[in-house]
Amino acid sequence: MLPSTERLLLGPGPSLIAPRVMRALGAPMLSHLDPDFVVIMDDLRARLERICRAPEGSFAFAMSGTGTSGMEVAVSNLVQPGTRVLSIVSGYFGDRLAQMSVRYGGEVEKVAVDWGRAVDPDAVRTMLGKTRAEVVTVVHAETSTGVLNPLEAIATVAREHDALVLVDAVTSLGGHPLDADGWGLDAVYSCSQKCLGSPSGLSPVLFGPLALERLVPCRGFYFDLELLEDYWLKRKYHHTMSASLIYALSEALTIVEEEGLEARWARHERHHRAFAAGLEAMGLSLLPPEGERLWTLNAIRVPEGIDDAAVRKHLLTKHNMEIGAGLGPLAGKIFRVGLMGASSTPELVTACLTALEDALAAQGFRAPAGAGAAAATAALA
Amino acid sequence: MLPSTERLLLGPGPSLIAPRVMRALGAPMLSHLDPDFVVIMDDLRARLERICRAPEGSFAFAMSGTGTSGMEVAVSNLVQPGTRVLSIVSGYFGDRLAQMSVRYGGEVEKVAVDWGRAVDPDAVRTMLGKTRAEVVTVVHAETSTGVLNPLEAIATVAREHDALVLVDAVTSLGGHPLDADGWGLDAVYSCSQKCLGSPSGLSPVLFGPLALERLVPCRGFYFDLELLEDYWLKRKYHHTMSASLIYALSEALTIVEEEGLEARWARHERHHRAFAAGLEAMGLSLLPPEGERLWTLNAIRVPEGIDDAAVRKHLLTKHNMEIGAGLGPLAGKIFRVGLMGASSTPELVTACLTALEDALAAQGFRAPAGAGAAAATAALA
To answer: With a threshold of 0.95, does the pTM exceed it?
Structure first.
């Protein structure tokens, strides 16, 4: 069975995919140890290192699985029974990192942050002083709340206490500035289907030199970093990588580098700001305060009395447009609109505002006609 | 970077992929919880159940990862510290199953079998009587040796001792008869890129009703079957499935069912027999004895004094044809020729024999000119 339609993907991911990337996906199959494929693997590693701004002595690769598999690679190779972990929990994915660390035997303490707010690095400093954690887990861009955590400041605090910084960059890599070398990030994982603009199924993973020094014995096999290093670096068979997904990610990263990281970040910022201006003109508000907002994912408060599911259904059925719902405690309370990768365009900003105006009107929420698109257009000018 | 060529894939996998499947791979992206996608997921589950001949009350799904990820799903949800496991080790993948069971805390005993031979079910019976194992792990089609293990008989023995049967069907599903219901198989995993004819990156997994009753707490998160069931059955978010790979697998399974399972098995058998006749006419021999040979993967002894790597390189560079090398103790001793899925055709049987004749001749091994292809053609007639 195949899809009946081509959606406008403005949810929390997957994002739209450039035609070049789709064509790469369909390139001829090669086996995982073919001499041609090995060259593609090396090229991909180098691209990932550049895009993460990896320090000398890092190991970057693409895990054969989704972003959650990358999370588990990071946790299962750095947390073992007894490892003291400090998990910053400011949303669903921060909580998932804490849960996973517990599963791997970590003694997990949390810095709990209200959903919708960024963590205060001073709170992290205080807790680190108390817990002497060896690993700090943090979500850079919290997909569930639309909040950007101050990663550089957190990493600085962690380094003061000689703790490793384990970073979820699923909704930031390729959309927000991230500098593993400059900021001192030790382990970073992301996904392929959001700001990087490829199909899901691969997770870019980076281990910096300090993390590589402090690996713990991995209990699993699929996620064992030593086996993965042997595969990527020494061509020792571990699993049969999906060449199709590797081609697509490779092409997507080529596009990222052609655009330039700074230009790409600026594009995500510009379209977010235009979208936010449009929302404001429509009488809508974002959950996070100014200065803590993601450029890649907009968490919009559902107006009082409006049924969020009806709005999303209207968008899907009348406008063929997908946006996301709230997760956990935010279910029914926010919409999540992703403007990531190929989905971050001026046309989609205004199209989404216009469709949202229509869908909200159908539920009884009347924004001034055309105000959203007009404000966004003005902001883009 | 993209591949420079379209190889004739006759190694241990990936196999060639039908154009229909490649086109499905490029179908428009849908998100993992899109109403359209959910229908595709349900259809895929039903197809996997039919292709595995699953008993009532099974749970079949596609794990977002390669065959090795499927192996880890099976092991990590059925083996916990203290679980008594009997692992049949007749090759590289049987050994990997044993290793993985140890990683998950299993008390693993092995039935060791010479590489190149099938296990004797009586040896399994004896060991089961001694060890009272709760789980028996077995590789149906041992990719490293080209051997078919007598799965039905092994499952019968395991059932006599009330042990669960955990089956690696990576190189058999879709190429050799497999009947989870009729034979009493409790957990089965496979891959997408061999006999099923899709790109790698997904692992079909089946848990039968008894296995579902005897789940152990899974230490991991990505492989936790309860979370995976909640995702596939209750749409509770777990990870962002790769829609592209799901489309391709769905199309590949459609082709399997259009051909018919019995017809497909017969095709694999017919082409294997023709290929084996050709090899014999060329003075080459297969590692496993008659009756223990896979139809899907042919383990050919490297003739005395021949450099296997030079032969494989000749095939790759002069004929654009990939075949596999030996693994572990069989490195340098066998070639592995896969005739699986879309790679199992009369044309590729004769093309491979002809190319092999040329490549071996370049290394000083002279087979009677055209004898291989002629014998295969006669066998196919």
So the answer is: yes
